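Project standup — Tuesday

K.O.: blocked on the structure for the chain from last sprint. Re-posting the sequence here as requested.
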Amino acid sequence: MVTVEDYRHAPGGDILIHLAQEPDRARFNAGGAEAANTAVAMLESLLQGPWERVVYASSAAVYGDTGARPARVSSVVDAGDDYNRCKLACEARVLDRGGVAARLANLY
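H.V.: unblocked you, prediction finished:
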């Protein structure tokens, strides 16, 4: 295991699993567009790294609170706040570069 001060300086490898984004939706939204811009910029720099593939941890929150369970990839998404807009923007960037986006629900 390698520990680095800055995630962007991690050594290359086959797969980078990107879990390093603020998970608290309310705290993220309190940061507004600046938090989203910072998160997208971090992801963009990671996508330039020496990994064969990037797996991005998105959130099932992008489906909103519709009560419909389980959500499907084809379900309508809700881009109503900075958190969701950022998650969707990051997903698109990762997918455009051949990566994988996983919309995770609450984990315990």
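K.O.: great, moving the ticket to review. The two ends are 24 Å apart (CA to CA). The helical segments are 25-30, 32-47, 82-96.
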